[in-house]
């Protein structure tokens, strides 16, 4: 999705939540969606200076939990709502409106000095479940692999588990990180490491890997040619006439 269209869509999501709310708006959740929300908030507050928007990360699970217990106005999420979350929403009188604001590619990353440039889905799965433990098994140097993963509150962690691990569990040896930025920082400093992040977090400090021979780009994610792509969401509550969306 082009940046202009993305901002317009996200502004529409934000406007729908603000319509019956106070002049303070809280947004919480996915660190993958965080840069989108920050850009949207900045653009919105320029047009609506009377509105103050506070944004915090913490992971998709934390954002959705905050929405369901009515402590935030909008949840940011890199996964869809689970059945149990929808059930809890109904119990709490919350009507979440899931809005897709982007399609993201989850990209495996390694240290820039790594000889590895491409891994298959099967190889990634075996690495993250602990079946492959040395880089030489996938064409790299004779070095033990250091696994870096998002923690279980992350939507990226769950999407990786579904799209790459096919439901298998990440090995307990993986180092769990609370944000995309933390994953980049750890991998950039460790020649042995591998991690995965949303495409928006790639920078020159790490080396992105192809997956099944496909480079992660916005185009290959949208076309579904890139195999590790998922939706990103902003989730306000459905406005009810005469009622505040947040009590």
Strand content: 15-25%
Q: What is the CA–CA distance across the termini?
A: 34 Å
Largest sheet: 9 strands, mixed
CATH topology of the largest domain: D-Maltodextrin-Binding Protein, domain 2
Describe this structure in words.
- The structure is a single chain.
- The protein contains eight helices and eleven strands.
- Helix 2 links the parallel strand 1 and strand 2.
- The longest helix has 16 residues.
- The protein is 32% helix and 23% strand.
- It has 247 residues and is of the alpha/beta class.
List keywords for this structure.
single chain; 247 residues; alpha/beta; D-Maltodextrin-Binding Protein, domain 2; nine-stranded mixed β-sheet; two-stranded parallel sheet; 8 helices; 11 strands; elongated; disordered N terminus
What order do the helices and strands come in, and which of them pair?
Layout: H1 3-18, E1 24-29, H2 34-47, E2 52-58, H3 60-68, E3 74-77, H4 83-91, E4 99-110, E5 118-119, H5 121-128, E6 146-150, H6 155-163, E7 175-177, H7 180-188, E8 193-198, E9 207-208, E10 210-211, H8 218-222, E11 229-236
Question: What is the gist of this entry?
Answer:
This protein is an alpha/beta fold. Helices cover 32% and strands 23% of the residues. It folds into two domains: 3-102 and 232-236, D-Maltodextrin-Binding Protein, domain 2, CATH 3.40.190; 103-230, D-Maltodextrin-Binding Protein, domain 2.
């Amino acid at each position: 999705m082009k940046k202009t269209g993305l901002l317009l869509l996200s502004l529409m999501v934000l406007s729908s939540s603000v319509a019956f709310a106070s002049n303070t708006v809280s947004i919480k959740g996915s660190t993958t969606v965080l840069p989108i929300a920050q850009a949207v908030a900045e653009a919105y507050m320029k047009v609506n200076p009377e509105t103050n928007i506070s944004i915090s990360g913490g992971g998709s699970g934390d954002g959705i939990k905050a929405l369901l217990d009515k402590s935030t106005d909008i949840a940011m999420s890199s996964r869809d709502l689970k059945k149990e979350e929808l059930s809890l929403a109904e119990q709490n009188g919350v009507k979440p409106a899931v809005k897709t604001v982007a399609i993201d590619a989850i990209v495996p990353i390694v240290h820039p000095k790594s000889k590895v440039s491409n891994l298959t889905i099967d190889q990634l799965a075996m690495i993250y479940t602990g079946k492959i433990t040395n880089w030489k098994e996938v064409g790299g140097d004779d070095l033990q692999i250091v696994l870096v993963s998002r923690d279980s509150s992350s939507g990226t962690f769950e999407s990786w588990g579904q799209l790459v691990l096919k439901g298998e569990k990440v090995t307990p040896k993986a180092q769990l990180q609370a944000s995309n930025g933390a994953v980049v920082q750890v991998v950039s400093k460790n020649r042995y490491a591998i991690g995965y992040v949303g495409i928006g977090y790639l920078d020159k400090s790490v080396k992105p890997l192809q997956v099944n021979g496909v480079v992660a780009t916005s185009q290959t994610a949208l076309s579904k040619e890139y195999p590790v792509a998922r939706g990103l969401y902003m989730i306000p509550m459905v406005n009810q006439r005469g009622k505040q969306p947040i009590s």
